[in-house]
Specification:
The complex is a heterodimer. By secondary structure, chain A is mainly beta. Chain A has no helices and 11 strands. By secondary structure, chain B is mainly β. Classes of the chains: A mainly beta, B mainly beta. Chains A and B meet through strand 4, strand 5, strand 9 and strand 10 of A and strand 5 and strand 10 of B.
Chain lengths: 109, 118
C-alpha cells in the first residue's frame, strides 16, 4: 500500500530565503507526482506535475525534482515571499492518487 | 475557462439528514475524483470515476455514502443518514487520463464543500 510522507509538517523561514520541501513515498512504481498549494479555506492549486520518466520540472521560482529509485521528491522555492505562505502537498499517482498530509509554510516578512 | 465547480460551498445539517454534494468537472476531462479532507486524516480518496464508470470505491467509508456520475458533466456524493463524524471538507477533482492509467493526468480541484453535521 502506497504511503506518502511530508516532513516537516510546518516550516517558518525569513523572506528571501531559498527553501526545500520534501516528499517521500514507499512504492516507486508510480506514474507521476504532483505538487499542490492550498491556501486556508480554499481548494488545491496544481503547481507542478512530474511524469515518471522525468527528473524535474520548473515553473518560475519553483523547481520540483523526482527520484523514483529512492522514493523522493523535493520542491525548491527560490527567493521566498510572504505570498508563498500556504500548505504544500505532494500527490503520487499509481493506481490511485495518494496525498501526503502537507507542509505548512510560513514566510516571515 | 471554468474550473471544477462544487455546490454547496457550505452545508450545515443535523444528524440523520440526507446530504447531497454536487460537482461539475472541467469540460473534456474524463476522470472525476471525490476526496474528503480533515485535520486528522488529511486528504482521503473516496471514489473515482473514469468515463462515468466508478473504478474504485474502496475509500468510501461505509454504506451511508454513495456517489453517482450520470453523465460526463455531473456527479453527486450523497450521505444518508449523516453523522457528526462526517463533518469535513469534501473536494471534487477532475483530470484527463489516457487509457486507464494515470499516465499524464494533471489533477484540478474545486473549492470544496464544507460539511458540518450537528
Amino acid at each position: 500500500k502506497q504511503e506518502v510522507t511530508q516532513i516537516p509538517a510546518a516550516l517558518s523561514v525569513p523572506e528571501g530565503e531559498n527553501l526545500v520541501l520534501n516528499c517521500s513515498f514507499t512504492d516507486s512504481a508510480i506514474y507521476n507526482l504532483q505538487w499542490f498549494r492550498q491556501d486556508p479555506g480554499k481548494g488545491l492549486t496544481s503547481l507542478l506535475l512530474i511524469q515518471s520518466s522525468q527528473r524535474e520540472q520548473t515553473s518560475g521560482r519553483l523547481n520540483a525534482s523526482l527520484d523514483k529509485s529512492s522514493g523522493r521528491s523535493t520542491l525548491y522555492i527560490a527567493a521566498s515571499q510572504p505570498g508563498d505562505s500556504a500548505t504544500y502537498l505532494c500527490a503520487v499517482g499509481d493506481d490511485k492518487i495518494i496525498f501526503g498530509k502537507g507542509t505548512r509554510l510560513h514566510i516571515l516578512p | 475557462d471554468a474550473g471544477v465547480i462544487q455546490s454547496p460551498r457550505h452545508e450545515v445539517t443535523e444528524m440523520g439528514q440526507e446530504v447531497t454534494l454536487r460537482c461539475k468537472p472541467i469540460s473534456g476531462h474524463n476522470s472525476l475524483f471525490w476526496y474528503r479532507q480533515t485535520m486528522m486524516r488529511g486528504l482521503e480518496l473516496l471514489i473515482y470515476f473514469n468515463n462515468n464508470v466508478p473504478i474504485d470505491d474502496s475509500g468510501m467509508p461505509e454504506d451511508r455514502f454513495s456517489a453517482k456520475m450520470p453523465n460526463a458533466s455531473f456527479s453527486t456524493l450523497k450521505i444518508q443518514p449523516s453523522e457528526p463524524r462526517d463533518s469535513a471538507v469534501y473536494f471534487c477533482a477532475s483530470s484527463f487520463i489516457a487509457g486507464d492509467r494515470f499516465s499524464g493526468g494533471e489533477l484540478f480541484f474545486g473549492e470544496g464543500s464544507r460539511l458540518t453535521v450537528l
